[in-house]
Amino acid sequence: MASSWQWDLVIALLSCVALLTAGYIYEKAAEWKDKNAHPAPGRIVTVGDHKLHLLYKARVGPTVVIEQGAGEPSRLWWPVQDRIAEFASVCTYDRAGYGWSEPVAARRSIAERAEELHTLLTNAGIPGPYVLVAHS
């Protein structure tokens, strides 16, 4: 027969599992609610095994591609994008794991991220030539 401290340990472990499960369910419900309340303003484009968010405003001439700084979402550049859209085609996008883009499991090199951006533009049908505007 189990002693009192063993039952206390079992109850404590079950309580921890219940709290973790409740937290997980709450987080998933909040993510679903936010996704429905704030849909992506651009397009979601498949790039390999994940999807990226792209906001494109077509005009004329070469396409200005804004590459935001590390850790920044594309929405910080939307005021700049709106001004550029007055005279040129322009796009911003969210890197994997930011904004409306899906996360990826492994870190990628700069070369892999550059290839991912090229694939995004190609898959979205965004015409070149491109003028890359990068921050940091």
Describe the model:
The protein is α/β, with parallel strands linked by helices and 136 residues long. It has two domains: 1-38; 43-134, 3-Layer(aba) Sandwich (Rossmann fold). It has three helices and five strands; from the N terminus they run αβββαβαβ. The protein has helices at 4-37, 78-84, 110-124, and strands spanning 43-47, 50-57, 63-67, 89-94, 130-134.
CATH class of the largest domain: Alpha Beta
Number of structural domains: 2
Please state the overall shape, judged from the principal axes of the Cα atoms: elongated
Instruction: Write the CATH fold name of the largest domain.
Output: Rossmann fold
Q: Strand percentage, roughly?
A: 15-25%
Taking all residues together, what is the mean pLDDT?
88
- Total of DSSP H or I helical runs spanning 4+ residues: 3
What structural category characterises the helix and strand content? Answer: alpha/beta
Estimated helix fraction: 40-55%
The CATH architecture assignment of the largest domain turns out to be 3-Layer(aba) Sandwich
Instruction: Please mark out the parts with pLDDT under 50 across 5 or more consecutive residues, or reply none.
Output: none
Oligomer: single chain
Question: What's the story with the biggest beta sheet?
Answer: 5 strands, mixed
Mind telling me the CATH superfamily name of the largest domain?
Answer: Alpha/Beta hydrolase fold, catalytic domain
Number of strands: 5
The Rg value, from CA coordinates, equals: 22 Å
Q: How far do the termini sit from each other?
A: 65 Å
Secondary-structure element order, as H and E?
A: HEEEHEHE
What strand order characterises the main sheet? 1-2-4-3-5
